[in-house]
Design brief:
mainly alpha, 74% helix
Length: 205
């Protein structure tokens, strides 16, 4: 009987120990989960700290090196540049045309009544080239600056307005003088047109 009681007591003690061990195992799971959560939180915190440090470093670099202003550089073959080149070429051609003008009929020449100035010489060719250059300069100027040509908005005191008015008028006067040649005296008119274009160029340079 005593042996049976001891056996039952040992069996109950063994069951109690097993139950206690199960409880201990369950108790261990909670700290493990908590440790995992803490590790995850720590990792997130470290990553967030790195992001803050990186953003601060970026801001420090940006503040240490101020941005340089972008300078506009016009290409060599823009429409505006072509307009400028044609205007300068017109003045040069007009000067060469004036220098190559043939002499008129004076007392030293015979048969002045039948004198006809040359129509195919260097002077004539340069005159026609000057007319073409002048009209091309005006055309390219209108194409390049059409949006800026406001006579009543900008007023006559604006240098740009004075430029296109004088240049346009000068080109038309010069072209008309070349069209008259050689039958009519045209030198004064051609020189006036070239002078107006020269002043127009000077106004914007």
């Amino acid at each position: 009987m005593n042996g049976s009681i001891k056996t039952v007591g040992l069996f109950l003690a063994l069951l109690a120990g097993t139950a206690h061990a199960g409880d201990a195992l369950h108790g261990i799971d909670l700290p493990h989960d908590a440790a995992a959560l803490q590790a995850t939180d720590l990792q997130s915190y470290l990553l967030a700290g790195n992001d803050v440090d990186a953003s601060n470093a970026t801001r420090n670099v940006a503040s240490a090196t101020p941005a340089k202003p972008v300078e506009f550089s016009e290409p060599l073959l823009s429409l505006n540049k072509v307009h400028e080149y044609l205007g300068i070429a017109t003045i040069i051609a007009a000067g060469l045309t004036a220098l190559t003008a043939p002499g008129g009929c004076d007392s030293s020449k015979t048969n002045c009544a039948n004198y006809q100035p040359p129509i195919n010489g260097t002077h004539a060719h340069l005159g026609r080239a000057t007319r073409t250059l002048a009209l091309s300069a005006v055309a390219t100027g209108i194409a390049a600056h059409w949006d800026d040509m406001h006579l009543f908005e900008d007023g006559l005191k604006d240098p740009d307005t004075q430029h296109w008015l004088l240049a346009g008028a000068g080109a038309l006067i010069l072209a008309n003088a070349v069209s008259k040649a050689p039958a009519h005296v045209h030198s004064a008119q051609a020189e006036l047109g070239a002078a107006a274009m020269l002043v127009a160029i000077k106004l914007v340079w």
